[in-house]
């Protein structure tokens, strides 16, 4: 494996682990907050679930290089992104620039997590 490929593999994997940790951390903080609405708590469960599923799929892809992990990560990312979009449009666009920036940022994070799983599945000997 070329040195550049190793750096990309480990970099994407580290980013994926860190972003998953942040999703779970967000979910725990929201659910222990006494002022969080029911809608926000439900969204926090979805965000935490995505974080846990992403870690599980990434670890499975790292260990076994199973091809299904790429599609599984794509499905959970699409579901999470869809719920995020529904959460934004449920009350209409209040602050379009901020909300579109959040959509683009989340899409970038989910794409990098998918690339981490893809690189872990398609890697040669490290």
Summary keywords:
4 helices, single chain, 83% helix, mainly alpha, elongated, 126 residues
What does this molecule look like?
- The model has no long low-confidence stretch (mean pLDDT 91).
- This protein starts with a helix and ends with a helix.
- It contains four helices and no strands.
- Helix content is 83%, strand content 0%.
- It is elongated, with a radius of gyration of 16 Å.
- With 126 residues, the protein is mainly α.
- Helix 1 packs across helix 4 and helix 3 runs antiparallel to helix 4.
Please outline what is shown here.
By secondary structure, the protein is mainly alpha-helical. The chain is built from 4 helices and no strands. Helices cover 83% and strands 0% of the residues.
Reading the helices and strands in chain order gives HHHH
* Low confidence ranges: none
**Structural class given helices, strands, pairing?**
mainly alpha
What's the shape? Answer: elongated
In what range is the share of β-strand residues?
A: under 5%
Strands, helices and their partners?
Blueprint: H1 3-31, H2 38-64, H3 68-89, H4 96-122
Helix pairs in contact: 1-2, 1-4, 2-3, 2-4, 3-4
